[in-house]
Amino acid sequence: MYSKILIRYGELTLKGENKKDFINFLKEDLMLRIPKNEIKMEYDRAFIDYSAKNLDSLKYVFGISSYSCAYELENNLETIKSKVIDIANNKNFSSFAIDSRRHNKNFSMNSNELNIFFGDAVLESFPNKKVDLKNPDLKIYVEIRDKKTYVFTDYIFALGGMPMASSGKVLHLISGGIDSPVAAYLMQKRGLKVSFINFITPPHTDKKTTDKVDKIIESITKYQMNATLYQINYTKIMNYIGLVSNQKYKITLMRRSFYRIATKLANKFKIFALSTGESLAQVASQTLESLYTIGEVTDLPVFRPLISFDKNETIKIAQTIGTFSLSIEKACETCELFAPKNPVTKPSRKEAKKLEEELSDLYNLENEIVDEVVIKEYKIINL
């Protein structure tokens, strides 16, 4: 039976003097999922106790490149050799290779000598097998560290990216569509702790629609264990914008309003960036002119991780993270309800500002609904 799971840090190894801080962020994430006494962090590796639950937990952890189920042994040459032969005895193979790493520079053999020593031991026990360094059927890894040695045969590739919250916080405009959940996941991958803002328009937005958004957020939250949703009742403003003289601009004005409201909330809760699921040229509100006109209203950076993605690329990620089946459920989305028959595709800032001047109460209404925001908390107890 394996005794440990050996974890490799990936990108964290490039962080120089800041590396320790990023390792601490990773440890904090692991501690939300795994008992503290089962975690050991080192400069270039982490080790946790082996269990099926701990192994499954690592599927949702950003900041690690790969991990391996390993045997933890004393730094004794004969003990390690015995385990290497035992592993070979339980595998079906014709060719093999040994990959040794001597992190403990006081150990009696260097890495190349260890490869020869363990390779000879396997050949002596299995004389009909052969060494193949390029494409072996079986590869046995040996890592000799300062206090213990770890022996394993497989690499399990992880999510990569940066540890949860190591890059700060972002407020993400979430909908029930395919794109925005994927964009939130990609923000998490870069080490951002994601909070969400969602606009509802009751009675048009029914319970089925809000339940759908809840399920999507819960699905994404397994990567950061807890999240906050700021839910905005947008009905009054949606109806008000509907009175504007140039109906083609309704979606542009609505999204400008979304950005202003999101910016107010972000400032209130000390969040320094917004993010969205926008992809360039996908719909009328995502042309370059639209992004330029809509983005004018905020002084916060707006992250758009899907900006160059085509729909199939986004769908593939949505299927991988489990949000696709939720996103395609029928629901009453605010943007869809409000969209004019022929929305403007190349809006101008000048025209948008002129139309907003027709709506003299718009900014007051936005301030009002920010004060009336409903805050919902999500917490993952057991994955």
How does this structure look, described?
The chain has 383 residues and is α/β, with parallel strands linked by helices. The chain has two domains: 4-157, 2-Layer Sandwich (VC0802-like), CATH 3.30.2130.30; 168-379, HUPs (Rossmann fold, 3-Layer(aba) Sandwich), CATH 3.40.50.620. It has 14 helices and 15 strands. It has helices at 19-31, 52-57, 77-89, 111-125, 179-189, 207-221, 235-241, 250-268, 288-295, 311-321, 324-327, 334-338, 349-358, 362-371; strands at 4-8, 39-41, 45-49, 66-73, 95-102, 130-131, 138-144, 149-152, 156-157, 168-173, 192-200, 226-233, 274-275, 302-303, 374-379. Strands 1, 2, 3, 4, 5, 6, 7, 8 and 9 form a nine-stranded mixed sheet that branches. A six-stranded mixed sheet has the order 14-13-10-11-12-15, with helices on both faces. Helix 5 (179-189) packs across helix 10, helix 8 (250-268) crosses helix 9 and helix 8 (250-268) packs across helix 14. The longest helix has 19 residues, at 250-268. The model has no long low-confidence stretch (mean pLDDT 95).
Which outline best applies?
elongated
Number of helices: 14
Major β-sheet annotation: 9 strands, mixed
Run of helices and strands: EHEEHEHEHEEEEEHEHEHHEHEHHHHHE
Q: Whole-Å distance between the termini?
A: 24 Å
Radius of gyration equals 27 Å
Mean pLDDT: 95
The share of residues in extended strands comes to: 15-25%
CATH class of the largest domain: Alpha Beta
CATH architecture of the largest domain: 3-Layer(aba) Sandwich
What level of helicity do the residues show? 25-40%
Number of strands: 15
CATH topology name of the largest domain? Rossmann fold
Coarse structural class? alpha/beta
The H-level CATH homologous superfamily of the largest domain, spelled out, is: HUPs
Low-pLDDT residue intervals, each spanning 5 or more residues: none
Number of individual domains? 2
